Amino acid sequence: MIFRQLFEPVSSTYTYLLGCEVTGKAMLVDAVLPTWQRDMAVINTLGLTLAYTLDTHIHADHISAARKLKQETGSRIAHPALDNLSCADIGLAHKIPLNMGSITINPLHTPGHTDNHFAYAIDDRVLTGDALLIDGCGRTDFQNGDAPTLYHSIHNQLFTLEESTQVYPAHDYQGRHVSSIAQEKMRNPRLGSNKPLAEFVDIMDNLKLAYPKFIDYAVPGNRECGVCSPNVPEALQQYCDQIRDSQQG
């Protein structure tokens, strides 16, 4: 399997490129609108053809590139079926595999950050979206988030994976790239060392995070698989702008 981790700096989002060396097909997980051209440049350089885009959930901090990539390449949009998006070509369901040549994606329903959040397990790694981050986890105070639900999702779906499983999150804000299930079970300050549910809920209830500055545009736009509203204020246009100067971003 060809695997690349690509970074979008405005929202600190990791996009993941998976390529099948047998069929020459590729998929992008959590592609971000301003960097779609960069992602396609990488795919083309590798001699691959984009077949699918997947999102882990309806994002609140960026616009998905799924719709744009479908328009440009004919790729198919795969998305958690529970969100019931009319723009999705494939509805993903818990533990029902999605196959692309030699690559098998195992979707895992991991609600709590959002009610319909999914992680994707592939061989010896798992793309955890916003559910499990490196030394952290996604917030639970919007989009039907719920701290006890997230706790159980992580413990019952992610922490039951092999401890050697590599953890690739959708975001990191400190320049880290990868963790492991063993590391998160041991040292995650919110969830590790068998931290009890009540303590986790107390931590999440007292984060006192600011209201996400792009959520009011991102959520409705992502329910359409990636549409940036014409009403986005100038100060937030960087979330919508296409790459102008270089296909390498």
From TrEMBL:
<dbReference type="Pfam" id="PF00753">
    <property type="entry name" value="Lactamase_B"/>
</dbReference>
<dbReference type="GO" id="GO:0070813">
    <property type="term" value="P:hydrogen sulfide metabolic process"/>
</dbReference>
<dbReference type="InterPro" id="IPR001279">
    <property type="entry name" value="Metallo-B-lactamas"/>
</dbReference>
<keyword id="KW-0378">Hydrolase</keyword>
<dbReference type="GO" id="GO:0046872">
    <property type="term" value="F:metal ion binding"/>
</dbReference>
<dbReference type="InterPro" id="IPR044528">
    <property type="entry name" value="POD-like_MBL-fold"/>
</dbReference>
<feature type="domain" description="Metallo-beta-lactamase">
    <location>
        <begin position="12"/>
        <end position="171"/>
    </location>
</feature>
<dbReference type="InterPro" id="IPR051682">
    <property type="entry name" value="Mito_Persulfide_Diox"/>
</dbReference>
<dbReference type="InterPro" id="IPR036866">
    <property type="entry name" value="RibonucZ/Hydroxyglut_hydro"/>
</dbReference>
<dbReference type="GO" id="GO:0016787">
    <property type="term" value="F:hydrolase activity"/>
</dbReference>
<dbReference type="GO" id="GO:0006749">
    <property type="term" value="P:glutathione metabolic process"/>
</dbReference>
<keyword id="KW-0479">Metal-binding</keyword>
<protein>
    <submittedName>
        <fullName>Zn-dependent hydrolase</fullName>
    </submittedName>
</protein>
<dbReference type="GO" id="GO:0050313">
    <property type="term" value="F:sulfur dioxygenase activity"/>
</dbReference>
